Amino acid sequence: MSQTYQAQIYVTLRPSVLDPAGTAVESGLQQLGFTGVERVRIGKYVELTVTATDDADAKQQVDQMCDRLLANPTIENYRFEVQAVTESMSEGVTA
Amino acid sequence: MKFGVIVFPGSNCDRDVVYVTQDILKQPTRKVWHQDTDLSDIDVVVVPGGFSYGDYLRCGAIARFSAIMRSVLDHAQAGKPVLGICNGFQILTEVGLLPGALVRNRDLHFICDRVPLTIERHDCPWTQAYAGRHEINLPIAHGEGRYHADADTLAQLEDQGRVLFRYCSPSGAVDESGNPNGSLNNIAGICNEAGNVLGMMPHPERAADAQLGSTDGLGLFQGLLKSQLAAVSS
């Protein structure tokens, strides 16, 4: 039986890729007085729901989405979490 | 020699390319809508600059899935010329015809300028018309034009002589002072291993009419025509 899963996907720049936006934000935070701030890196967050037969299927689908479109492996890494959507959660999603 | 200029939603340099190939060089030219799939009548495919699909997700990431791109891949794999300019270069890296990626400029600015470039070699169709010239000036206009690739890919590009254009200082020095966006190895344009696919961030089509101040970009298109004539006569 198929089931709806909620996925939370984090796409981050590979450590070897210079992140000038992160550097600019780091300098802004330091000017605000957060002098201990270092290594700011800015990435992307994607959330979506997907219909899948089970946990493994949901993970496999999301992994392929990341690999083929949501992240560019040349410059980015990704990680994600998937969770089956229950009735009470889906109300929360639409609210 | 027939040119096909791909038009995506958000392309904005397509008509500039058509003006160069059709009006200046008098070559038959057809604009090809991204939902079309037929390129059988086309000799040279140009993927023009702009902001295809609003640059959503990453520049070129969505355009890559357009119906026409399957035909562009076939065209390239058949050894026929494919030129990607600016957003077109970004699309060609996303679709895997060229290695690496174009990321946010080092200093975060969108740069709209005219910059000096070195021509690294003159023995390929794209640059043969520049024989005797080692430096040209071309317009650039991009926010995400910093070329990035891993160390192995960079070494391979260099070993195989696939970097055709590099940013340089006004005196012709390829160094950090002449690097507007932070591109690795000052890379402004590269070709694939076979040499028939070229991607470049600078805009040759915006420097091809003397009335607009420069014709430094015209040689690129003239070189292609020359190679075609050579192919016919041999």
Query: What shape does the CA trace of chain A take?
Result: elongated
**Overall pLDDT of chain A:** 92
Helix content of chain B: 10-25%
Number of strands of chain A: 3
Largest interface: A-B, 12 and 20 residues
Specify the structural class of chain B: alpha/beta
* Count of extended strands of chain B: 11
Kindly state the mean pLDDT of chain B as a whole number?
95
Q: What's the gyration radius of chain B in Å?
A: 16 Å
What proportion of the residues of chain B form beta strands (DSSP E)? 15-25%
Walk across the major sheet of chain A and give the strand order. 2-1-3
Q: How far is the N terminus from the C terminus of chain B?
A: 16 Å
User: What shape does the CA trace of chain B take?
Assistant: globular
Distance N to C terminus of chain A: 26 Å
Major sheet size, sense and barrel closure of chain B: 9 strands, mixed
Low-confidence stretches of chain B: none
What is the overall number of helices of chain B? 5
Topology:
The complex is a heterodimer of chains A (95) and B (234).
Chain A: E1 3-13, H1 20-31, E2 44-52, H2 55-70, E3 76-84, H3 87-94
Chain B: E1 3-7, H1 14-24, E2 29-33, E3 44-47, H2 67-77, E4 82-85, H3 87-94, E5 101-103, E6 111-119, E7 135-142, E8 146-148, H4 151-159, E9 163-167, E10 187-191, E11 197-200, H5 218-233
Parallel strand pairs in B: 1-2, 1-3, 3-4, 4-11
Antiparallel strand pairs in B: 5-8, 6-7, 6-9, 9-10, 10-11
Concise summary:
The complex is a heterodimer of chains A (95) and B (234). With 95 residues, chain A is of the alpha+beta class.
